[in-house]
Amino acid sequence: MSDQRFYAALPARGVIEIAGTDRVEFLQGLVSNDVTKAAADRAIYAALLTAQGRYLFDFFIIALGDALYLDAEAARLAELQRRLSLYKLRAKVVLSDASARFAVAAAWGDGTASALGIGGDSGAAKSFAGGVAYLDPRLAALGARFLLPRENSDALEQAGFAASDAAAYDRHRLALGVPDGTRDLVPEKALLMESGFDELNGIDWQKGCYMGQELTARMKYRALVKKRLLPVIIEGVAIDGAAVAPGTAITQNGSEAGEMLSTQGSRGLALLRLEAVEAMQSNGADLKAGAAVIRPEKPAWMKD
């Protein structure tokens, strides 16, 4: 990576505001992380699950003023707001779409944290340009994220970051093997323990009950994980001469071994059966997506 630092607006992200005196208690009983840790100096990453422990939504939780803000997928923002509203009952909370007021951006490159004056580890946050800057709670190597008032959208250039785009940030993300919402996590199907949420700081094992906790805990403590979301290198002739399409089946010796997820060029993420990965490592049995050969890599942040 060069010494230059980059930033990109992330127009595929939207923002939900959760105001009201019960905002922390309301979210605490629903999501996978400890909402009490979201503060002016810390942002967190969390997921909302089905009662059966399957993925529905993931988002960042940012505290600003007297409200919490969720940085989530813009295309599914209305559905997330609707789903959260189902659990309001008598809680003193007000949910609203704040995307017209706030934009989401990311920055990466050497010295990003020091350039922003943010110390500490993943999730460390500070006020910035009327909003919040924070080190990505999932993985420090991803860089920083921002919740910015739209009128201050030029603040990152003024801070010395070179303008880039979401595609460049996506390449950075894929190189690190980090999933990106429903591009890599299938709603009502994906499981947190298969998708890296433990290592990517998306689960708090000490907090009280939340929606879908039972299956998530059982998979961890009974070692029931049989698949993992892994970064992959795509080699050989790709399908139709392009990157392997998301959803393409991955096979090994003619048997199902997994599925391709988000891709860009020769890099991507795939959900793979661990026994198939072990077979490839032990006896060289290729993993294939059509005519392409898939080479999984274990990212540095992933536990054994």
Index terms:
alpha+beta; 6-stranded antiparallel β-sheet; 17 strands; single chain; Gyrase A, domain 2; 2 domains; Elongation Factor Tu (Ef-tu), domain 3; 7 helices; 304 residues
Walk me through the structure.
This protein has helices at residues 23-28, 77-85, 112-116, 155-158, 166-176, 213-221, 274-283; strands spanning 6-9, 13-19, 44-49, 55-64, 67-73, 94-97, 102-108, 125-128, 131-135, 144-149, 162-163, 227-236, 249-252, 255-264, 267-273, 287-289, 292-296. The strands form 3 sheets. A 6-stranded mixed β-sheet has the order 8-9-10-7-1-11. Strands 13-14-15-12-17-16 form a 6-stranded antiparallel β-sheet. Strands 3-4-5-2-6 form a 5-stranded antiparallel β-sheet, covered by helices on one side. 18% of the residues lie in helices and 33% in strands. The protein is built from 7 helices and 17 strands. It folds into 2 domains: 6-177, Probable tRNA modification gtpase trme, domain 1 (Gyrase A, domain 2), CATH 3.30.1360.120; 183-296, Beta Barrel (Elongation Factor Tu (Ef-tu), domain 3). It is an alpha+beta fold and 304 residues long.
Give the SSE map.
Layout: E1 6-9, E2 13-19, H1 23-28, E3 44-49, E4 55-64, E5 67-73, H2 77-85, E6 94-97, E7 102-108, H3 112-116, E8 125-128, E9 131-135, E10 144-149, H4 155-158, E11 162-163, H5 166-176, H6 213-221, E12 227-236, E13 249-252, E14 255-264, E15 267-273, H7 274-283, E16 287-289, E17 292-296
Parallel strand pairs: 1-11
Antiparallel strand pairs: 1-7, 2-5, 2-6, 3-4, 4-5, 7-10, 8-9, 9-10, 12-15, 12-17, 13-14, 14-15, 16-17
